[in-house]
């Protein structure tokens, strides 16, 4: 039996009306049979083919409950009932324990930083020190690990300097690796439950759970401070609860509970890594498919179906928003101190952190006016400031184009005295602030004068050095030739509602539009050659509506010294101490961080262990995670070759089965009964669609990718493999004569294949655990493919 023990506790508030019925022996036996059948029928049971000569039994209505005490049927309103069932399931418990043992075995080894632990461990330490950091992924995974580490008193003192660095005695390695290992341990029983939910037999469902346990790549990623095991856990739990949610009685307590858990789990996957959104899309597909299959049911009115769709949508959206926003609320509430990644954010964000940008903007004026000295920071994307120096553009570029030979204007990634500019009204000669303030507002026309060289910002119809479709931006030098000065710039305040169209330091985001050409001042992202000191190009672009044309004033003071030398000395020597942080609302921080994460998602540098999506299904390349300094013991990311190749073959087999059946059905030859055909389509659509949704998008991603990006797709591929094995057994029984012998041979083949998977797992577990000292010959024996870059640095 699948269930060896059960404890049920029920707390029920019901509205009942008892309807005594005439007690007859036959009726009582029939009712008892119905009750027994109802109790023994589980949503996970594999459907049996009905016998044609057996009359169909009346199913017990969901709102009736048989009472043994008086032989009556009690009508129960399920909308007001709630029950808690605690089941001891031998299969799920066994899978969890076996998975737990493999994941937690010597989990504190290696006692050094393993691969991306250098990043995620550092983020966890910053959480525990309340110090702001920036990561391109949402924060939930790091928050969970930080919570586990903080619970045992870890203060975040370890710096995670480099891969391989030894952890000191203050680092609770078990606590830091506990959450990923626990999520990895729970994955196998969840996969088992999903397979049972789509009506697969218990044996093949257990096989699915075992394959998850035996995959070396999933084992490796469950043992270290990495995000993938948490991502897979939440995604799989979300899919499981969606399937159960769709089978629950609409609007019952179970229905509401499962819907909430499903939405929360799927959103949690997104909150671990944005690629969890693919699982969210799969869940939406499953739910949309369920609605589509319900439409022909004439027992349900249009209004009822529409009501279900609306309520489901509201439930899913509201829970998802609450979880996602709540995750970031906790993130910002925890990280309130300035940190090493502040400069990625806007000036306003930095100034809102304790000890942040306010340390250099103490007491500076808020409103920009004529005579203001300012530094202009590129608001979004790469951190740099509008910059100029005495050097000029070369007369000729390498491609033969000519320049204006004017003073260079660039974007410089460091604070520098040459980043300072003076705001000037075109009709005024003085660069000093007036006694009567002359504030700059939205739509005003200004000139920007470079603080050190005293030359004004200029643009004209000359091609930019690195971006020929844009105009050159320079500081104007009068060479007494026919090249007039075009020095006027219009200030457009993009978030003017907050400041009532006044130009404010720090918070106002502005676009500077060249009056003569209507081109906007733009950071192009192109790096200048040696003549530009490898700084970044600034140009003017007539396509104004881009985020690279947005700037903000970071540092600001008023020009009050008429002696230019005094002005320069003040710029060089001034140091400021913070007063209080700038107030920035949660929603401003939230929206800015979402934009920054999306903008930085593609900015991963090339890596020697990166790979391409077409290399993943056959595991052409692994990743070196850690190497022992004293021997060749190492942690290397490789999957179970037997499972990966078999799963890839299963995709081909399922598509072949599907095409075969579709052609036959087109000829009105129905090989499968309706129940079996629906199950074949449902399982295949879920698992094949899940695989494709999690795999195909990577072919269109222009960033560095690694083998671990394939793990979510692998999860669905393994489940599809189990589905195909189950269907092969069914097809052999159905279409082959002497099927008993053939099925026995098939099972023997499966057992042999499974033994091969077990052997591969055991053979290559040394690369997952990293606990075994290896000789050079041992490493070479493990290298089944020339493309596997296993490390040998000791004889």
From TrEMBL:
Keywords: Endoplasmic reticulum, Glycosyltransferase, Membrane, Repeat, Transferase, Transmembrane, Transmembrane helix. Residues 1-72 are annotated as: Disordered. Its EC number is 2.4.1.109. Its main location: endoplasmic reticulum. The chain crosses the membrane at residues 174-194, 200-218, 225-246, 258-283, 304-332, 642-662, 682-701, 707-728, 740-761. Residues 43-72 have a biased composition (Basic and acidic residues). One of its GO terms (cellular component) is endoplasmic reticulum membrane. Residues 1-15 have a biased composition (Low complexity). It is a multi-pass membrane protein. Residues 365-426, 437-494, 498-556 form the MIR domain. InterPro entries: ArnT-like_N, MIR_dom_sf, MIR_motif, PMT-like, PMT_4TMC. PROSITE patterns: MIR. Residues 16-25 have a biased composition (Basic residues). One of its GO terms (molecular function) is dolichyl-phosphate-mannose-protein mannosyltransferase activity. Pfam families: MIR, PMT, PMT_4TMC. It is found in: Endoplasmic reticulum membrane. PANTHER family: DOLICHYL-PHOSPHATE-MANNOSE--PROTEIN MANNOSYLTRANSFERASE, PROTEIN O-MANNOSYL-TRANSFERASE 1. Interacts with tw/POMT2. Belongs to the glycosyltransferase 39 family. This is Protein O-mannosyltransferase 1. It comes from Anopheles epiroticus.
């Amino acid at each position: 039996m699948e269930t060896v023990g059960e404890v049920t506790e029920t707390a029920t508030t019901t509205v009942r009306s008892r309807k005594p019925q005439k007690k007859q022996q036959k009726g009582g036996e029939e009712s008892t049979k119905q009750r027994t059948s109802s109790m023994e029928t589980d949503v996970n049971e594999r459907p049996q083919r009905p016998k044609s000569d057996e009359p169909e039994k009346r199913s017990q209505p969901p709102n009736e409950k048989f009472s043994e005490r008086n032989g009556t049927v009690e009508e129960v309103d399920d909308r007001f009932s709630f029950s808690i069932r605690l089941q001891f399931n031998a299969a799920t418990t066994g899978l969890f324990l076996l998975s737990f043992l493999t994941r937690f075995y010597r989990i504190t080894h290696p006692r050094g930083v393993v691969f991306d632990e250098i990043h995620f461990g550092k983020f966890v330490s910053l959480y525990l020190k309340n110090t702001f950091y920036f990561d391109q992924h949402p924060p939930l995974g790091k928050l969970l690990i930080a919570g586990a580490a903080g619970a045992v008193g870890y203060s975040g003192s370890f710096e995670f300097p480099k891969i391989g660095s030894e952890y000191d005695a203050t680092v609770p390695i078990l606590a830091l690796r506990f959450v990923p290992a626990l999520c990895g341990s729970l994955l196998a029983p969840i996969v088992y439950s999903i397979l049972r939910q789509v009506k697969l037999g218990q044996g093949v469902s257990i096989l699915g759970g075992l394959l998850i346990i035996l995959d070396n790549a999933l084992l490796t990623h469950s043992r270290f401070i990495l995000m993938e095991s948490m991502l897979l856990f939440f995604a799989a739990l979300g899919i499981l609860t969606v399937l159960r949610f769709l089978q629950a009685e609409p609007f019952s307590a179970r229905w509401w509970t499962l819907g909430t858990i499903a939405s929360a789990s799927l959103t949690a996957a997104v909150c671990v890594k944005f690629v969890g959104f693919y699982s969210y899309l799969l869940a939406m597909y499953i739910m949309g498919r369920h609605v589509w299959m319900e439409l022909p049911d004439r027992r349900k009115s249009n209004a009822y179906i529409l009501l279900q769709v609306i309520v489901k949508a509201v439930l899913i959206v509201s829970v998802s928003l609450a979880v996602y926003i709540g995750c970031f609320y906790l993130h910002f509430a925890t990280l309130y101190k300035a940190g090493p990644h502040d400069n990625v954010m806007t000036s306003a964000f930095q100034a809102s952190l304790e000890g942040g940008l306010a340390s250099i903007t103490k007491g500076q004026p808020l409103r920009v006016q004529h005579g203001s000295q300012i530094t202009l920071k590129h608001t979004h994307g790469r951190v740099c400031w509008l910059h100029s120096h005495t050097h000029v553009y070369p007369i000729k570029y390498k491609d033969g184009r000519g320049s204006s030979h004017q003073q260079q204007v660039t974007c410089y990634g460091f604070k520098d005295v040459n980043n300072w500019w003076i705001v000037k009204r075109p009709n005024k000669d003085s660069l000093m602030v007036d006694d009567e303030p002359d504030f700059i507002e939205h739509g005003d026309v200004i000139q920007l004068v470079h603080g050190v060289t005293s030359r004004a910002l200029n643009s004209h119809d000359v091609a930019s050095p690195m971006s020929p479709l844009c105009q050159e931006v320079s500081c104007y030098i009068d060479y007494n030739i026919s090249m007039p000065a075009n020095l006027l710039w219009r200030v457009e305040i993009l978030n003017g509602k907050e400041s009532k169209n006044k130009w404010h330091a720090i918070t106002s985001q502005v676009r500077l539009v060249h009056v003569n050409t209507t081109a906007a001042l733009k950071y192009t992202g192109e790096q200048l050659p040696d003549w530009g000191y490898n700084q970044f190009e600034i140009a003017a672009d007539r396509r104004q509506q881009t985020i690279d044309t947005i700037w903000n004033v970071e540092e600001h003071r008023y020009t009050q010294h008429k002696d230019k030398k005094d002005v320069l000395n003040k710029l060089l020597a001034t140091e400021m101490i913070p007063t209080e942080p700038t107030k920035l609302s949660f929603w401003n921080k939230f929206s800015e961080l979402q934009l920054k994460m999306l903008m930085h998602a593609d900015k991963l540098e090339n890596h020697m262990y990166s790979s391409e999506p077409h290399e993943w299904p056959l595991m052409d390349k692994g990743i070196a995670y850690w190497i022992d300094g004293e021997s060749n013991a190492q942690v290397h990311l490789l999957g179970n070759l037997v499972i990966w190749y078999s799963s890839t073959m299963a995709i081909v087999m399922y598509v072949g089965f599907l095409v075969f059946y579709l052609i036959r059905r087109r000829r009105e030859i129905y090989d499968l009964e309706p129940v079996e055909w629906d199950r074949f389509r449902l399982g295949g659509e879920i698992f094949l669609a899940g695989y494709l949704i999690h795999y195909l998008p990577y072919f269109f991603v222009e960033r560095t990718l690694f083998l671990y990006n394939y793990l979510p797709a692998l999860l669905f591929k393994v489940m599809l493999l189990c589905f195909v094995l189950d269907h092969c057994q069914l097809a052999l029984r159905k279409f082959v004569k002497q099927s008993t012998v053939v099925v026995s041979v098939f099972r023997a083949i499966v057992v042999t294949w499974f033994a091969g998977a077990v052997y591969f797992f055991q053979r290559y577990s040394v690369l997952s655990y990293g606990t075994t000292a290896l000789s050079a010959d041992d490493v070479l024996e493990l290298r089944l493919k020339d493309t596997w870059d296993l490390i040998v640095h000791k004889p």
